[in-house]
Specification:
Distance between the termini of chain B: 30 Å
Number of strands of chain A: 11
Radius of gyration of chain B: 27 Å
Low-confidence stretches of chain A: 1-5
Order of helices and strands of chain A: HEEEEEEHEEEEE
Radius of gyration of chain A: 25 Å
Largest sheet of chain B: 22 strands, antiparallel, barrel
Shape of chain A: globular
Largest interface: A-B, 50 and 61 residues
Number of strands of chain B: 46
Strand content of chain B: over 45%
Mean pLDDT of chain B: 85
Distance between the termini of chain A: 97 Å
Shape of chain B: globular
Oligomer: heterodimer
Mean pLDDT of chain A: 84
Structural class of chain B: mainly beta
Helix content of chain B: under 10%
């Protein structure tokens, strides 16, 4: 039994060590649904004047789902016909205090992100107005040119890790982009005087 | 364990034959013959069966290998000695005889799939259950594969897969919290609630795997409601010199290599040790037409055992550590329902890169660490007491594709558990049984900022009693168990932390019988009732499950908040009837089991709707409860066609029927048939036991799958009935060839085998693989396995040392 008496203390010690690993449940931190929740997207359209200079007072439209509960607040985009706009997008996580500016993270990993726009009005044109380190578009800044008055839908899509070199992707065609969808937000849009 | 199992039948045989033997009239019939059964190394073989065919009488050797046949008439007899794993031997016997017999048995070169005969050892399963044992050979042919893949060889056992490296066992259609894994005598406490969570066990550790296909809830509690997977290490042998084993395996498909080594020895005649370790590394798997990017894995495991045994007292200490990192198919990470739709309609995954060993997000990182201390002692001639403590720490981290820090886990759980099992076993005449109690402490912690599952503390206490009675060709058994669970959780309702606690009581009962039709046929029937409260995950999951791109909600997450009312917890109850017939004679072996299981409040996870987020539409999955009937059959048939050829057929079928509505229950394995032809031949010279086999597996389409609603239609369809995003895959056929041979040298043994899985490189999808929405299954795979054993049995401790 001598061996046993030597083994037992070792076993007991290990047991205690295992138990000491246990933490206190009362340190529970409010779990967020996502490490990185996207709650808000702000589109700011700056209308160009006759000289091609964007306005200092852009119009802003918001898609917001503050608590991620699935009841978003969506504003109607109202643009003037036959006008040119610079669109800047910002993305926020407003579930945290203070809100986290996700736009900066997108910019920091610009080569891994690209915005796409799907418009049901046929008379609106858009093109990329920015690029990442590889001279490929990101879409945080774009140019929109409106045509005749009409109403429809604008869907803004942000893809994470798309294949930017695939056919058509640099021209804004999402078909071959791949990657996973970080944002797919639909806005009603009205082009009117 | 086979030895013990065999002893069970042997005892029964003895009981039933001894009763029928009457002394012949007119002769002197009060002679006896005694002796000892041992192996060629002089090691005693406890529980060997000895049988005199002409008298229809038998006896079973004791634990010390000794036997005694009483009331023999004078004359000549032939005595047959059987012991599983050893060649049968026939000894001529002259009565009266003056000297005790010493019978030496030779190891059988290859164990065919012996009829599974249940033993009567206390820690074993019910004798009337349907169970299968994977022998060392069968394990060897899949060595290095995940545990769940190895046990799929047993009919009635399948897996829910997540890619090529994650196999979650399914027995008779039941999985997750309903299956217990008993690893070396300790109940495995891991994170079995997730569909993409595989058992956290080094498959090289087990020298024998036993699967009970039916409820073992009476002995092990509600965790074993659907069955038990029992993994056993080789018992320690106390040799003065060092013995050991080395395994190496290589696969071409994912360019994987695995190595496992084991060394063992003795400190003295009464104590010994063993150390073991495994290392595995694999890169991306390949489907026939493309690379399955980010499906690599690595694993590092170690274990150490120390044992002591003398005068009926024993002590064992076992410690193990299991660590793995597994990549999840990159293209299976989707952002929303539109992405899922895109994956389903496109032929290829959207992310295909060249082969690599590196693992990126999404990935899982899992650690499981175990300390077991067990002690047993004999209390007199008929009783023994066993105590087992198991301390476990399981850490699971899941990493997702995200911006910024790739090393911030999206989900992180730390589960600590302590279990204590005490059992008092008795065996007296025709009665045997055990009473026992179990205490389990479990604490789960979430890392800061990750959700899905709440923090919880669970305290379980259970008591049970099992009794068996053997009479002639019959065996009867019955058992009862009571459990109490105290559960406390820490969860946020809106943004307020609440910590409700729940007290739950539940019961299990079983009754069974086993009838030995003849020496080679047995019929058994087992009825079991069991109930369990749903697991914390099934009750309180709430949040985004990243890797599944879904929002999951537990049963207690109501529209108006989180319920803290214990009466809202509806226990799942199973009513199970399993019948098994086993036959083994000459070259024929048959096992057939037929079962029906009526489940009240059966818990399952199903998509129920969508939620609009800035990412677009997200599927919501809810845990639901329904009444379900699961019935099915599985069969194993092997027939020797000639001295070289053996035919084998295996079959599994389970039908699940939702009794409440026109619903179909998801994730029920489709019917499956395996047919194999094996050629065996003893080669001249040192190489022997050559074999080559061809196996054809047919997996049918799941005809009873939930209806299909494509992701793009989910927002508009009525979702009250269960559905799936993709139609079940069509029937497919897989061919596998395998060949091997054994080289036996003095004290050493080398086995080499070679196999090709998916021989024709078929492209197919598997209904039970959660990644079937995204990519094809693994293509052709060549594997080589080498097993080398060395033992120096002559260096035994001397008796007088």
């Amino acid at each position: 039994m001598k061996k046993t008496s030597r083994i037992f203390p070792v076993a007991l010690l290990s047991m205690i060590l295992l138990m000491q690993g246990c933490k206190d449940h009362d340190d529970v931190v409010n779990p967020v649904n996502e490490v990185e929740l996207l709650t808000t997207m702000r589109l700011s359209f700056a209308k160009w004047d006759e000289l091609g200079i964007p306005s200092q007072l852009p119009v802003e439209f918001i898609w917001r789902d503050e608590d991620g509960s699935g009841n978003p607040e969506i504003e109607v985009i109202e643009l003037e016909p036959n006008a040119t706009y610079t669109l800047n997008i910002s993305v926020l996580d407003e579930s945290k205090v203070p809100a986290i500016e996700i736009t900066n993270q997108i910019m920091a990993e610009a080569d891994k992100h690209q915005f796409f726009f799907e418009l049901s009005p046929t008379d609106v044109l858009w093109e990329y107005h920015d690029s990442d380190a590889n001279a490929q578009p990101v879409g945080l800044e774009t140019i929109f040119i409106t045509g005749e008055p009409e109403t429809g839908l604008l869907t803004v899509i942000l893809r994470h890790e798309p294949n930017k070199s695939a056919e058509g992707v640099q021209d804004g065609d999402i078909t071959n982009a791949g990657g996973e969808t970080d944002i797919q937000a639909e806005f009603p849009i009205t082009i009117a005087e | 364990m086979l030895h013990l199992a065999f002893r069970g039948l042997s005892l029964l045989l003895f009981v039933l034959t001894a009763a029928g033997s009457l002394p012949a009239i007119g002769q002197s019939c009060n002679y006896y013959v005694s002796g000892l059964v041992e192996d060629s190394d002089g090691e005693v073989l406890p529980g060997a069966t000895l049988y005199i065919e002409s008298l229809q009488r038998g006896v079973v050797a004791g634990v010390d290998g000794k036997f005694r046949l009483n009331d023999l008439c004078a004359g000549n007899y032939s005595l047959m000695i059987k012991y599983v794993g050893y060649e049968d031997q026939i000894v001529s016997l002259k009565v009266p005889s003056s000297r005790p017999l010493v019978i030496k048995l030779k190891t059988s070169p290859r164990i065919l799939h012996d009829i599974v005969i249940q033993g009567q050892h206390a820690q074993k399963h019910s004798l009337s259950q349907s169970a299968s044992i994977l022998s060392a050979d069968e394990i060897l042919s899949r060595r290095g594969k995940p545990l769940g893949e190895i046990i799929q060889q047993i009919p009635g056992v399948q897996s829910i897969m997540t890619g090529g490296s994650i196999f979650k066992p399914v027995i008779h259609g039941l999985y997750g919290q309903r299956l217990l894994i008993l690893n070396n005598g300790v109940r495995q406490e891991g994170q079995q609630w997730g569909l993409e969570h595989a058992p956290e066990i080094d498959s090289y550790l087990a020298s024998e795997i036993e699967v009970v296909k039916g409820s073992e809830a009476v002995r092990y509690g509600a965790d074993a409601m659907g069955g038990a997977i029992i993994l056993n290490q080789q018992p320690l042998e106390f040799f003065s010199s060092i013995g050991g084993e080395m395994n190496a395996g290589f696969s071409t498909n994912n360019r994987a290599a695995s190595f496992s080594g084991m060394l063992e020895g003795g400190f003295s005649r009464y104590s010994g040790w063993r150390v073991q370790g495994t290392v595995k590394k694999g890169g991306d798997y390949h489907a026939p037409q493309y690379n399955l990017s980010n499906t690599g894995m690595r694993e590092l495991d170690m274990s150490a055992t120390m044992g002591y045994e003398k005068n009926g007292k024993s002590l064992e200490i076992f410690a193990s550590t299991f660590n793995t990192e597994i990549g999840i198919l990159r293209s299976a990470h989707v952002g929303n329902l539109s992405d899922l739709q895109q994956s389903i309609v496109s032929e290829k995954p959207w992310y295909i890169q060249d082969f690599t060993y590196s693992i990126s997000n999404p990935r899982q990182q899992i650690g499981h660490h175990l300390l077991k201390v067990s002690a047993a002692t004999k209390l007199g001639a008929t009783k023994s007491l066993g105590v087992t403590y198991g301390g476990q720490y399981n850490q699971r981290k899941e990493y997702d594709v995200r911006r910024g820090n790739q090393n911030a886990a999206s989900l992180s759980f730390d589960l600590y558990s302590h279990s204590l099992d005490v059992s008092l076993d008795h065996e007296h005449d025709l009665w045997s049984g055990s009473i026992g109690l179990t205490g389990i402490f479990k604490d789960n912690y979430n890392a800061r900022g990750t959700g899905l599952l709440p923090d919880y503390a669970q305290r379980n206490f259970g008591v049970f009693a099992i009794e068996k009675y053997r009479k002639n060709k019959w065996l009867f058994e019955g058992g009862f168990r009571y459990d109490r669970q105290h559960l406390r959780i820490w969860i946020f309702d809106q943004s307020t932390l609440i910590n409700p606690s729940f007290d739950m009581h539940y019961f299990a009962a079983s009754a069974g019988t086993s009838f030995y039709i003849s020496n080679s046929a047995r019929f058994s029937s087992h009825l079991a009732l069991a109930s369990r409260p749903p697991h914390v995950s099934e009750l309180f999951s709430n949040g985004l499950h990243h890797s599944a791109a879904s929002i999951e909600r537990g049963l207690m997450i109501k529209d108006d908040g989180i319920s803290t009312n214990v009466t809202d917890i509806r226990h799942e109850r199973s009513h199970q009837w399993v019948n098994a017939f086993q036959y083994s004679h000459g070259g024929t072996s048959l096992e057939l089991s037929v079962y029906a299981n009526y489940l009240v409040n059966y818990v399952y996870l199903s998509p129920v709707g969508t939620e609009l987020t800035i990412r677009g539409y997200f599927p919501i999955f809810e845990y639901r409860q329904t009444n379900a009937m699961m019935a099915g059959a599985d069969a194993y048939f092997s027939q020797a066609l000639s001295s070289h050829f053996t035919w084998l057929t295996k079959f599994s079928y389970v039908m699940a029927d939702d009794r409440n509505a026109a619903n179909r229950i998801p994730l029920i394995p489709p019917p499956q048939i395996d047919n194999a032809l094996t050629y065996r031949k003893s080669l001249p010279g040192k190489w022997k036991d050559f074999f080559a086999s061809l196996n054809v597996q047919t997996v049918f389409q799941q005809a009873r799958a939930p209806r299909t609603i494509l992701p793009r239609d989910v927002v508009t369809e009525d979702l009250t009935r269960t559905f799936d995003f993709m139609a079940p895959p069509e029937t497919y056929f897989l061919f596998r060839i395998e060949s091997g041979a054994n080289l036996a040298l003095d004290n050493r043994d080398l086995t080499v085998s070679f196999s090709v899985d998916n021989l024709f490189n078929n492209s197919y999808r598997n209904y039970m693989n959660r990644l079937r929405y995204y990519a094809d299954e693994v293509g052709r795979n060549f594997s080589i396995r080498v097993n080398y054993k060395f033992h120096s049995h002559e260096h035994r401790y001397e008796e007088n040392k």
